Amino acid sequence: MVGFNMDGPARDRVLNLIQEKDRIENEIRENTAILESNNVGMQDSLIDAEGFPRNDIDVYKVRHARHQIICLQNDHKAIMKRIEQGLAEVHSGLLGTDGQGTSAPTPTLHMNGNGANHHTGHAPMDTVEDGQVFAKVAFVHDGSPADDAGLCVGDEIIQFGSINSHNFTDMMQVHEVVTHSVGQRVQVRVRRAPHSVLNFTVIPRPWAQPGLLGCQINRIA
Questions:
Q1: DSSP of the chain, one letter per residue?
Q2: Tens digit of pLDDT for each residue in 30-85?
Q3: How do residues 148-202 score in pLDDT, each as one tens digit?
Q4: In the chain, where are the structural domains located?
Q5: CATH number assigned to the domain with residue range 110-219, chosen from the 4 options 3.40.190.150, 3.30.1780.10, 2.40.440.10, 2.30.42.10
Q6: 93-147 confidence digits (pLDDT tens)
Q7: Per residue in 2-27, is it b (16+ CB within 10 Å) or e — as a string?
Q8: Does this model's pTM top 0.70?
Q9: Superkingdom, according to UniProt (predicted)?
């Protein structure tokens, strides 16, 4: 899930879309579990060598689960596009002013989701000579993509995909990289106390809990 320190209809629409995305991901996991319980995938044959329905699986349930997964995956693609559009709308509002000449408040992003040892095909990492950090990992769920990738609580983020201290403005940039990179490798460079600079690869993906990374990343003031 994502939390924005900002009110308004655009924010509410994005949050509702994210809740719907989480529901779809849960349904995909439930139907995938049906296939796994029958030891079949999306492409395995459901008939035996003689052309009869296999008697070692529940053919009806497998067929239904496959159909549901295909439909849900299409729904997931569609809602991700709507989330991206909504985030762009919220982002535009944040770049404006509150009507009194002051900048709009910067959101804090809470990402409960997926990842694994991987980096982003979203954009190549830029070289950051000064190693300046812009965000920090606040917590990591066990078994999450972020956990699989090796990220730890307290890691200070120098680079997240195409984002670094030079082009970072708000946490929604990180969220946008995550939502655009489902199933793709995202490079993450962190500074870990006391002096280590480490490179990780995370793959945003649906996992056992809502979200795509399974960690919370906060902006460093």
A1: ----S--SHHHHHHHHHHHHHHHHHHHHHHHHHHHHHTT--SSS-SB-TTSSBPSSS-HHHHHHHHHHHHHHHHHHHHHHHHHHHHHHHHHHHHHSB-SSSSBPPPP--EE-----B---SSSPPPP-SS----EEEEEE-TTSHHHHHT--TTPEEEEETTEETTT---THHHHHHHHHTTTS-EEEEEEETTTEEEEEEE-----SSSSSS-EEEEE--
A2: 988 898 899 888 888 888 888 889 999 999 999 998 888 888 888 888 888 888 77
A3: 999 999 999 999 998 998 889 888 889 888 988 888 889 999 998 767 889 999 9
A4: 9-95, 110-219
A5: 2.30.42.10
A6: 655 544 444 444 433 333 433 333 333 333 333 334 457 899 999 999 988 999 9
A7: bebebeeebbebbbebbeebbebbeb
A8: no
A9: Eukaryota
pLDDT of residue 5: 41
Determine the pLDDT at residue 209.
82
Owner of token pair 């954009």: 123
From residue 152, alpha-carbon distances to 79, 95, 161, 190 in Å are 30, 31, 17, 10
